[in-house]
């Protein structure tokens, strides 16, 4: 039933199949590129709004280097900074949007992307008792690490590594905030 | 003869999870909740139906010695398309299932049905087989997910009815093996009775 397995047949068949498949993938990419970008943009806008107090106007995007790592941040003049901070979680990069109010108190945090285990570390996106600890957290008064490490945060059950990564991402964002508000004096 | 049996065969007699024991990686890894199991099953079914259809169409033209690379290319194409579509239109589902969507390419159910069924049957039968096996896989994953979610998190499809954490082991890998094993026993006991 199948065509004979001659070299010519095989080469032609593979070439044709690969060409058609590449065309299909290319077409799918062309169709979905805009919705994917729009979805990512909508998510960024929504996360900024979620992690900062209500503000007017469009936040201003910028980037800064702290300890050799580049951070992207969004500045909303009357509200504070929304800082994107990435650390290593249990399953890969854990990226957060951290809202720091003018004055240095954390307003809220949101997970932008993660590769944590579903049902365990992935709870860092849904577990209110964990996420709410960061709301109104003042890093000047309390320690931004999990209790196992001597800090003031309860870790997600069975997901200490994820919780540590989350706490580290937030504390890195606080460091970024301090660097931003120092007015560029620091050049260590 | 009715072609309905192509669907029911995939669902019961050739149930990919409990009888053929194929595709164990996503079965064990993504069934932490009923919803995750259902979404993973549907994603696999999408690829399964389309790859079955295309492979049954092109099988007569593909030389035997290159059939596996051709099938894998076709399957990988559908998985990539699915991945892009999910990223664009259901980003939250895509984030939950993450890595396991691209891994559908190497799911032995998909290649198994291509090699074991679609290349010997016509388009209609292959599509029905894809629907049957896909539904069987989806149902199995959802059932495993339901059991694990109830025992592990005290909730069902995200609706929490038992306060507290539940038996954590059932959310983790050991629970997946336990639940799968017991469900397999029940399923095969039921099949043996018939």
Q: Ranges of chain B with pLDDT <50 over ≥5 residues?
A: none
Which chains have the largest interface?
Answer: A-B, 33 and 41 residues
Strand content of the residues of chain B, in percent?
under 5%
Overall 3D geometry of chain A? elongated
Q: If helices are DSSP runs of H or I spanning 4 or more residues, what is the number of helices of chain A?
A: 3
Strand count of chain A: 5
Please report the distance between the alpha carbons of the first and last residues of chain B.
22 Å
Instruction: Work out the number of β strands of chain B.
Output: 2
Strand order of the largest sheet of chain A: 1-2-3-4-5
Strand order of the largest sheet of chain B: 1-2
Query: What characterizes the major β-sheet of chain B?
Result: 2 strands, antiparallel
Amount of helix of chain B: 55-70%
Q: What percentage of the residues of chain A does DSSP assign to strands (E)?
A: 15-25%
Radius of gyration of chain B: 17 Å
Chain-averaged pLDDT of chain A: 83
H/I helix tally of chain B: 8
Classify the oligomer.
heterodimer
The span between the termini of chain A is 73 Å
Q: How many domain modules of chain B?
A: 1
What does this structure look like?
The complex is a heterodimer of chains A (188) and B (194). With 188 residues, chain A is α+β, with helices and mostly antiparallel strands. Chain A has one domain. Chain A is 38% helix and 22% strand. Chain A is built from 3 helices and 5 strands, in the order αβββββαα. A 5-stranded antiparallel beta sheet of chain A has the order 1-2-3-4-5, with helices on both faces. In chain A, a hairpin with a 2-residue loop joins β1 and β2. Chain B is mostly helical and 194 residues long. Chain B has a two-stranded antiparallel ribbon. In chain B, a hairpin with a 2-residue loop joins β1 and β2. The longest helix of chain B has 31 residues. Chain B has one domain. In chain B, α3 runs parallel beside α6, α3 runs antiparallel to α7 and α4 crosses α6. Helix content of chain B is 69%, strand content 2%. Classes of the chains: A alpha+beta (188), B mainly alpha (194). At the A-B interface, α1 of A face α4, α5 and α7 of B.
